[in-house]
Amino acid sequence: MMTPKEALRKLEVYSSTNGSGQCTQDEHEEAKKMAMAALEKLQHYEELKTAGRLVELPCKVGDTVYFLNTKPHISLRMNWIYKSKVARIVTIGSGSFIMIQMRTEYGCTELPAVRCDFGKTVFLAREEAEAALKGSDLNE
User: Fold this and answer.
1) Are 79 and 46 in contact, with CB atoms under 8 Å apart?
2) Distance, CA of 11 to CA of 43 (rounded, Å)
3) pTM for this model (two decimals)
4) Which residues contact 19 (CB under 8 A, 6 or more apart)?
């Protein structure tokens, strides 16, 4: 079975040599089928997107994220970066919440984050969280 890249390459070779190139008629037909399947899949995703049923998430369950706490919270330190795990992803209505689980000195706590929190208070890399903390007036 060809990979999608191989299929595209075979189609390019076949079309650039008017069928007399380095691939057989069978390979050309297999490449065409793969290309059509890929286009159908893309069309399906476009239809889902148009219908508002396709969601692109910034992370997946189990990913490590870094939560920068900027608000008073009973069990979290202010202006502190917490290494956390994405515990689950919940969809309510038209919104998605990413539930972040973190261990604190008081035990384990779980907080919701929304997509717009990423890059502001939730980061995929510790260095990004540290830069946000340094760049803000939170630590003054």
Assistant:
1) no
2) 20
3) 0.69
4) 25, 28
Q: Are 129 and 66 in contact (CB under 8 A)?
A: yes
H-run or E-run covering 40? helix 25-50
* 3: enclosing H helix or E strand: none
Domain that holds residue 10: 4-50
Decide if 35 is inside a domain.
yes
For the chain, the domain total comes to: 2
* DSSP per-residue string spanning 45-104: HHHHHHTT-----SS-TT-EEEEEE-S-BTTB-TTEEEEEEEEEEEEETTEEEEEEEEEE
φ, ψ dihedrals at 41, nearest 5°: -65, -45
Q: Which H/E stretch holds residue 122?
A: strand 122-123
pLDDT digits (tens, 9 = 90+) for 81-124: 999 999 999 888 777 888 888 877 777 888 888 888 999 999 99
